[in-house]
Amino acid sequence: MMYSKEYNVRQSSEKDSSRKDYYKWAVWIENGGSDISDIDYVQYLLHSTFKNRFRKISEVSTGFRMKSSGWGEFKIEISVTKKSGESIQMSHWLNLKNDFQDTDEVNKESELNSKKLYISHSDADIRKAQYLQIMLTDLGMDVVSTSDVELGASLKDYITESINSSDAVISINSETGSDWQKAEIKIANELDKTVIPMESFINIKKKNSNFSSISGTDRSYTENLKDLGDKIKKIKF
Question: Residue 117, Cβ neighbours under 10 Å: how many?
Fold first, then answer.
C-alpha cells in the first residue's frame, strides 16, 4: 500500500452477526508529520462493486472518518486535499476482522514508496510479472517492465533508460528465458544495478504462495503483502 509521512491511515472493522461474512468498517486519517487541521477534505475511492464508490469527507473533528459495510477486502484509494491546495495520494488495504483496529504497523510500508524496480521476464512469464507488479505497486513502489513500453518506441532504448532509472532489477527466471531477458540482465550488470531473482523472496511453487492470493476477496492477501514487504526490506539495493 502507499502511505504518507504527513498523515496516518487508520481503520476499524466489526463483524455483523446477522449476516454471514459481513462487516461494518471505518477508515479515517490521523496526524503524522503534519496536523489534520491543515486538511480541507479527504476523498475515498472504493471498490467498483459499491454503488456510491466515491466518498468525499470534510469533517475534521472525526478525522475525516468514512463509514461503510460489505463482504470483501479491497484497496481503498485515498486523496487528501490540504487547505493550501496541495494533494497527497495514498492507498490502504481494507482488513476485515472482528473487533479489529489497526496500529502503527499498517503505515510502515511507506519506506518502500521511494523505490523503483524493473521486472525482467520472458513472454512465457508475463502473467507472473503482472501479478508481481500488482503486489509491488500495492506496497507503494514504482514498477516498470517491457509491458509498459509505448507503441512505436525503441524497445532497447526503453529498457536501458528504465533500468538506469531503477534502484534494482527483479528477474523472473524460468526455463523459457528469452534473448531480450538476457540482454536486460546484461544491461543491469553494466549499469551496476542489483539483480534480484524473484525466487529469492517468493516461492511460486508453494501452494500458499503470494501469487495464490492475488484476488481482492482473499482474506490472506493482506498478510501475504506484508510478508512480501518484509522480505524486500531485508534486501539491500
Answer: 23
